[in-house]
Design a protein that fits this description.
46% of the residues lie in helices and 16% in strands. The protein has 335 residues and is of the alpha/beta class. The strands form three sheets. Strands 8, 9, 10, 11, 12 and 13 form a six-stranded mixed β-sheet that branches. Strands 5-4-3-6-7 form a five-stranded parallel β-sheet. It has a two-stranded antiparallel sheet with strand order 1-2. The N and C termini lie far apart (121 Å). One of its GO terms (cellular component) is outer membrane-bounded periplasmic space. InterPro entries: ABC_transptr_periplasmic_BD, Bact_iron-sidero_bind. Keywords: Signal, Transport.
Length: 335
């Protein structure tokens, strides 16, 4: 009897242990199942995060004068060492720009906020300042700077000398910034505004009238401006389409020159019926050599002062604003 009880107790104990073992396995299996579910959920979430991160870093290849360059598909932190107006025209405010353009591109001031930091003057750009701004794209006019700038961010050379007109310039910048639609829209608006400016001076300016732009900022001599480059040449001759003085055309424009240094003794040879005078401190007293007062444009009160800090730049946006102001000066009405 005793022996039978021992066997029964042993059987019961064995069954009890077996039940505990099965319960433990079941609990562990449940925990493992729960853990696996969490891992699966985490795994299912990772591709979305990775895809989003990958999208943010998408790049594309564009062709430049220095070869193919890999740039961000949608650059957000752009630095320009010269061509500020080109990127502003397309709705991009850079994080850094040349101090020279910031000071001598006054027509661009309404489009620039504190976001755009000074990276140094032309020829003295600070790579350290560039690094601090964490750019994702740098646009430079100087091929010699590509190697240095490329250590900071992808760098593209934008050479306005390669383009024949404002349309080509804006289209090319649209490709660099991947803002082709914005470029088309800006050019459409540009044409409309140009036509308004031209209409202002039609009927006010004689058809055979000639024009000149003369820089007297140094007063030691004069600079007569052609139809391209800084000091309003693009605005007057290409946008408004007025007629340059014959000597301006033959000695500067036809020779493909931007400007010509002319002594005060010879300035009368280049002065048209209407003269735009580029100077500093517009409105203040200015003493000029007596030959200036002998010009027909001066005698007929057809001289209009232009602020050097507004007319030094020649980007499409500045040139458009310059043309509108010139039209307003010629007609004596609001811009």
């Amino acid at each position: 009897m005793f022996n039978r009880n021992i066997k029964r107790s042993g059987s019961w104990l064995l069954m009890f242990c077996l039940l505990l073992f099965l319960a433990a396995c079941s609990s562990e299996g449940a925990n493992n199942t729960s853990t696996n579910e969490v891992k699966e959920e985490q795994t299912s979430e990772q591709p979305a995060e990775q895809t989003a991160e990958k999208d943010m870093k998408k790049t594309r290849i564009i062709s430049t004068v220095t070869g193919d360059v890999e740039v961000p598909t949608h650059p957000e932190r752009v630095i320009v060492d010269w061509d500020l107006g080109h990127v502003l025209a397309l709705g991009v405010e850079p994080v850094g720009a040349s101090k020279t353009i910031l000071e001598y591109g006054r027509f661009l001031e309404p489009y620039v906020t504190d976001q755009t930091q000074d990276i140094g003057g032309d020829g003295q750009v600070s790579v350290e300042k560039m690094l601090a701004l964490n750019p994702d794209l740098i646009i430079t006019w100087d091929p010699k700077m590509v190697e240095k700038y490329s250590k900071v961010a992808p760098t593209v050379v934008y050479d306005t000398g390669k383009y024949d007109n404002i349309h080509d310039e804006i289209t090319a910048m649209g490709e660099i910034l991947n803002r082709q639609k914005e470029a088309e829209e800006w050019l459409t608006s540009f044409e409309e505004r140009v036509e308004v400016a031209k209409e202002k001076i039609r009927g006010v300016i004689p058809e055979d009238a000639t024009f000149s732009i003369i820089d007297v900022a140094t007063t030691k001599s004069t600079i007569v401006v052609g139809e391209s480059g800084e000091r309003g040449g693009d605005a007057l001759y290409q946008i408004l389409g007025v007629t340059p003085h014959p000597r301006v055309k033959s000695d500067i424009i036809d020779k493909g020159e931007i400007r010509l240094d002319v002594s005060w003794e010879k300035v009368g040879d280049y002065a048209g019926d209407y003269v735009f005078m580029v100077r500093n401190d517009v409105g203040s007293e200015l003493e000029l050599p007596s030959v200036w007062n002998s010009l027909d444009a001066v005698k007929n009160k057809r001289v209009y002062e232009l602020d050097m800090k507004k007319y030094f730049t020649s980007d499409p946006l500045s040139a458009l604003l310059q043309a509108e102001e010139m039209a307003a000066l010629l007609t004596g009405g609001p811009k």
